[in-house]
């Protein structure tokens, strides 16, 4: 989702933006146009999350199967969107609080914004993501989001402002995330047999039981669903009768 900003609130050219980021060598800052080739997804967060008594948000760390490391989040909403990016097979890199954007507003005041996530796709595309319940975006936030969109589009990155996710889909993704670790796909022979078994859409539990105890087989099925090697309709709650099939991409 992109958002509009009042005229004059954001630079009209990419050279009006600067970007700051961190990596193992330290802190860096360049005009945005000169930093397009930077692998922001491989850097370090530019800011940390505060933690204090009675805070309203819930910061934490999510273990990403994409990166093999932890991705920070500052709320359950951010956690859900980190999980969704991790669940996207085409995403190859992911970092929270990946960079600072700097620009001047129409009054000449310096403005800064740290987006929530930077994701890299297997074709090289970059995606910048801000998470915010859509009914809680005030004018100040909307202006920052619009400036971020302008900056991202100027250098060929995607940009999204994302809010609440469909509850059924998110519940399914959270369930499958419990089986995201590679250990669930370690039995290559069983993986091969499952991919063959689900060559046509079939009820998940009954079909998995053909290869052994469902308690042992289903975690591998869920892992393959997480990887996108098997597919199912996630718009409805997963159940014993959910039809699962091999992905057409295989």
Automatic annotation (TrEMBL):
This is TnsA endonuclease N-terminal domain-containing protein. NCBIfam families: TnsA_like_Actin. It comes from the Bacteria. InterPro entries: TnsA-like.
